[in-house]
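Intended use. Records like the one below are meant for learning the mapping from a protein sequence to its folded structure. Do not use them to infer anything beyond what is encoded.
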Amino acid sequence: MHFTLEEHTLANGLRVVVQPDHTTPTVTVNLWVGVGSRHEEPGRTGFAHLFEHLMFRGSAHVDNGEHFPALMGVGGRLNATTWFDRTNYFETIPSGALELALWLEADRHANLLAAVNRANLDNQRDVVKEEKRQRYDNQPYGQALSTVYATIFPEGHPYHHPTIGSMEDLDAASVQDVHDFFTAHYAPDNTVMTIVGDVTAERGRRPRRAVLRAHHPPGGATTGPGRPPSAPHGAGPGRGGRRGAQRPHPPRLPPPCRRGQHPPGVPGRLDGARLPGWVELLPAGAALVLDQQVANSVDVGAMGFVDGVSLGLVVADVAEGVDTDALEEQVCAELTAFADEGPTPEQMEAVRARAERGWLSSPAAKDERADIIGHYTCLHDDPEYVNTFLDRLAEVTPRRRARGGRQVPAAAEPGRCRLPRRAAAGGGRMSTVDEASTPVQPRPEVTPPGEWSFPQPREPVLPNGIRALVHDVPGQYVVSVRVTVPVALRHEPPAVEGVARIMARLLDEGTLHARAAGAVRAARATRRRDRCRHERGLPRHGHGRAAAQPRGGAGAAHRVPERAGLRRDRGRAG
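Structure written out for the chain above:
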């Protein structure tokens, strides 16, 4: 698998990666800013997430609330997310609207503070508070991951508090506090812009003037290496023993499926944190649920953060009448045994196959591909990761994974967690721009789309009479198969209502020649993950990395207008 990438760095330090893809006349613009909740100071939590909201509330030349309708009105979809290590803004638009999208990004990254006043700040503070009530305070298990973070990471650690932050800190924030946070972190040498889609490399470079100006604050102020680094933190998770916290939850409410899934933030890479691959191999889940029936479900996942700190999550929904302590001891015994023995070659091959399938599916969509490229460029300085992941995956062996497993029970060593700033091109300081010589560019017009039609499918008929529709899509590395049988509820005979659903379920249970249990469990897990991601507004496919954002992350609560049937598509916020 290989995608052609062109990377260049503007004079102000902004990294731009262009990946042409002309399969459809659409373009994704994806910006990763290297600021998240881990960069917040004590007493100033929630600022990174707050700015995710404020970035849609107008700037010097864009009215309050205009950003969404400006792009949705031409057929685009857009949103943003915040996580511990980054903030991400993205839009997918018709290729004729690329210049408009870049112009809007330019204005808010350059001139946002012109619109951040007391009224705007108070309004978005209230929005964040309502989001916290809906997603954390009034949801079953809504505080679960926040409790995990506070239990694992000591006070003062960058990952101790959830991305949503403290409402008391937000109430205490002044307009100047908020301005200072933006000035410190929203700078070109801390940002990566990825453009994927119906665009040539030359056209991707063409809007350079607008984007260049976007990242120079008025007056030509310089930032960059002088920007304050992340505050040092205390010790990491304590070594040995167990740290526990208990919180009452409503009885018999199943935990949300996203608890055991992966965040869209910053997973540990294969050559870094080994934990993600290790926990996926845990064999106990099926036995606890299907054989012993002591758990209704067992979800296993991992979060790897940018500095190598990892969290492995085993989330068990305890069956009624089962002793919780006994189940916990059983799970811990399974983890210890697995860490000692390591995976079998068969287990390793199954996990590798699932990882390959997930990865090959991820870059199929332009927005997913742009997100992968931006993620690894911004946080790992590795835009080519999208082309090398499968090679790295093939190098993972049972022996290497077993070594990773044995390292897990002894938690991370205490240490500092500080992100070095990338130096801007040409000597480490941002170049300045003479505002008088760089006038405000007029808002670009949207170019009407050219002639384009979806490729016609081939329609072979199989020897048994099944009609097939075959779509050949260049540049895709997976095959999707869907079988539709024209039998539904209306075909059920009287007095046997429900037989159609039963038959559909039986098709998943294997045949005379194929035992489907393992494949079906994997398929159901994928469907469950996709459903949860869809409810959250996330892309359906993971990245071969940590994928779905758990409740501990925060997405913006601004509401995307429901217009012409448009959803908050891929909107991880709201």
